[in-house]
Design brief:
The chain has 179 residues and is mainly beta. Helix content is 8%, strand content 33%. The strands form 3 sheets. A 5-stranded antiparallel beta sheet has the order 1-2-3-4-5, with no helix packed on it. It has a 4-stranded antiparallel beta sheet with strand order 8-9-10-11, with no helix packed on it. A hairpin with a 2-residue loop joins strand 10 and strand 11. The chain is globular, with a radius of gyration of 18 Å.
Length: 179
């Protein structure tokens, strides 16, 4: 755990009370970011993150999302990939700012995430959002010496739409990723 229950944030070498955190006191994000692992995979939640420093491009951040459908948070992002190079976001998740927004159903849909979407009768189909058995599953997440091999099975997310739907990210060298 990066945050202790007493409110301390060891990466930033600062102490904060629970009130500081609740009321939004800002801590040293640079100190926290400088203590981040280069690669981490969370197989239960389905998040895989690669963050590496390069001499010519700056920080490269890649975040692959597969994960479980969880209480209170589900939208059609299973199989999506977020990519940032330097401070430029190349592949994004538009997110939801306000859950009372009239466009919430649209914003939650797979169509506005960077996933392959099936179309039937001219209408984009959506991933299943509410059945836990329709979650994605990371089946491979390996990273060594800059080489990434990642694969997720997101077939269940579509609840019978696809016979097989896997998303892969592979790299033959640290600067070349194929999605």
């Amino acid at each position: 755990n990066n945050k202790n229950f007493d409110g301390s944030i060891p990466e930033a070498n600062k102490e904060f009370s629970k009130e500081d955190i609740i009321f939004g006191k800002i801590y040293d994000l640079d100190a926290v970011e400088n203590n981040v692992k280069e690669f981490i995979n969370f197989p239960v939640t389905g998040h895989t993150v690669l963050r590496r420093e390069t001499p010519d491009l700056g920080t490269v951040k890649l975040h692959a999302i597969s994960g479980a459908i969880t209480f209170g948070h589900a939208h059609g992002d299973k199989g999506s990939v977020l990519l940032e190079v330097g401070k430029t976001q190349l592949l994004i998740d538009r997110g939801v700012c306000d859950y009372s927004d009239a466009y919430l159903k649209t914003i939650q849909s797979a169509e506005v995430h960077n996933v392959v979407v099936a179309v039937m009768n001219g209408e984009a189909l959506n991933q299943e959002l509410y059945k836990p058995e329709c979650s994605g599953k990371v089946i491979q997440a390996q990273y060594e010496a800059g080489i990434l091999n990642y694969e997720t099975d997101i077939t269940p997310c579509w609840d019978g739409v696809f016979k097989k739907n896997h998303r892969k990210i592979t790299s033959e060298n640290p600067y070349h990723y194929m999605i």
